[in-house]
C-alpha cells in the first residue's frame, strides 16, 4: 500500500512539471519562428523600398505652363567640392558602414578595367532574357495626365527591373557611399544556375538614398593630359605612352580605372564652326581634324586635298576608279535583288576610307554605319563624322560588336585589311551574326591572294554562305564577291562536317556588351512571331510598319505619336535651335526610335544614333527594323567615338535611370562635353531634383543655358556648349 501511494504521489508530481515543460518548449519555438521570419522578411521589404524609391516619370507637355527651375547654389563654383580631411572622414565612414551592414571589412571597389580582364574567372550567372517588344512599357500621349505625369506608373519600374539582356559582364557594388557621400544600401541576390542547381551570388545591388548629383557640389576642371591629346577616346586610347609601341590603342576596349573627370582640349589651331550639310560632303575645316598622321596621309592620297583652310574631297577623285557611282551600279548589276534604297536600307561598312561610298549610298536613301577600326591611326573615322556620316570606333578582335543579331541588310568590306580567315574565322562568324537571314556580304579587293581565296572559300562553305556572284570590274580593276547568308536551317543539316556547330538554345545572339565572339552558328528563326523570318518592308514604308513579332504594336504607335508631337510642337519651334546647323544627333536613351523617327521625318538633313543602354530592355532590334541605326552602350563608361562628334545630344530620363548603376554620374556630363562639338546643343528631360544640380554643373563648364522649365516634379533643360576650356 505504501508503495502504491508513493507511486501515485510521484505521478501527480510529474504532471505539473510536464505541462510546464511543454509550455516552455512551445514558447521557445514561437520565438524561434518570429526570429527566423524577421530575418527572411528583410530582403523582401528592402526590395519593396528599392522599387518605391522611383517616382513616376512624366513627360512635360509642350503646351503646359512653363516655370523656371529652382535656383542653384552658385557660391564658390570654381572650388573643389571636397578637401583631404573630408575625404578621410568619408573613407572612415565607408568602412564603418560596411562593417555594420555586411559584418566584414570592405573589399574595395572593382573598377571596370580590372573586372573586364578577369571576368572569365568570375562565377557564372544565369541571365534572364527579355522578349523583344514585350518587357518594356511605352508612354503614350493618351496616358499623360493634365499635370504632366504619365498614367502608367509601372513603365519605368518595369524598365528598371528588366534584365541586362545584352551585357556580358557582371557589375560589383561600388561600396556603401557614392562619390557625393550619399548613403546606399547593398544587398546580395542569389539565383539558381541551370547546371547542378548551384546557387551563386548574382551581384551586389545598390539602393541609393541620396540624389544623383550633389545639389551643393562645386566643381573645378582641368585639361586631360593624355598621349592622344585632343583626339582622346578613353576606353580605346592608352592614357600614357607605352614604351616603344607604335600603337597607342588597346587591342580590346579597356576603360580607365576611374572615369575621366578632365576636359579634352581643343585642337592646337583652335576649332572652327563646322561646315554645314550638305556642303560638308565636299569639304571640312582642316584644323578641326588635323594631326600629324593625317597630314602624312594626305600627301600619299589623291581623294583628299588640303586647300587653304579646308580639307577638300574632289568628286572625280575617289578610292574607286571609274567613280563610286559606277561601283554601286556594278554591284547591283551582279545581284539585281540588291536594290539600293529599297530592299537595302541599313549597311555596315567595315573600315574607313574616303566616305564616298557612304555619300553615294545616302543619295540612294541607304543609311550606312561606318565601323572605324582601332588600328586606324589616321583617324579617318573622325573625318567621316566631321563630314556628317554615321561612324563609331571599335576594336574588332575577340569580342562581339555592340549591335544586335540579324539587323544589317548588307555588310561591305572594300580592302578593309581584315584577315577574315584567321583565328578560326571568328570575325566572319560575327558578320554572320549581324547579317539578316538572306543578307549580303560584299567583299571587294584590288589584289587577290590565292591562299586567302582558298581559306575564304572553305570558311564561307562552312557557314553555308552562297556565292551569288564573283566578278572583276574592268574599269576599276576591283574584284567583287557577293555572298548571301542562308534564310533557312535546312542547309545547316546538309553539312558533312558540323563545324562550326549550332549554338545552344540558351545562347543569346543579341548579347553583345563585353561578350566574346562565339564559334557557333545561330539558327535561323522559323516562326512568324520570331524576328528575322521576313525581310522588312521597302524604305520608307518600313519606318512605320510593325511586323508580327512586335507584340506591343499599339504602344509602338503611341510612342511614335508621342515623340512626333514633342518634336513638332516643342523642339523644332520652341527652344531656339537652328536646325540647319544640326547634322549628327545622338539619342542617349532611345527606346523604340520614336524620337529619331519623328526628327528624321521633319528634318531630312540629319541622322540619329540611337543608344540603347545595356541595363534597359533590349529594344535596339526594333530600331533597326524601322530602318534606323543604333548601338548598345553602358553610360557608366565613355562612348566609343572621337571628341566633338555630335551636334546635338538628347537625354530623356537618362540620369534617373542610371541612379542605381554608375559610381560617378558627373562623369557622364564630362563625357557629354567630350563628344559634343563647341556650339552643339543638349536637351535633357528628367526630374527637377536632377535638372537643378545638372544646371549648376553645366554652368561650371561655361555652357550657356538656353531654356529651362519645370512642371510639378518634371522638367526640361536646353543648353549650348561654348568654346571655353580651362
TrEMBL record:
Ranges annotated as biased composition (Basic and acidic residues): 84-99, 166-180
Basic residues bias locations: 113-130
Compositional bias ranges of the Polar residues kind: 73-83
Gene Ontology BP term (one): methylation
Superkingdom assignment: Eukaryota
Annotated membrane topology: Single-pass membrane protein; Single-pass type II membrane protein
Enzyme Commission numbers on file: 2.1.1.-
GO cellular component: endosome; membrane; trans-Golgi network
Acidic residues composition-biased segments: 153-164, 182-195
Transmembrane segments: 20-40
Gene3D superfamilies according to UniProt: Vaccinia Virus protein VP39 (3.40.50.150)
Chain residue ranges for the region called Disordered: 51-207
Any GO MF annotation of the entry: methyltransferase activity
Protein name: Methyltransferase
The organism of origin for this protein: Linum tenue
Biological classification of the source: Eukaryota, Viridiplantae, Streptophyta, Embryophyta, Tracheophyta
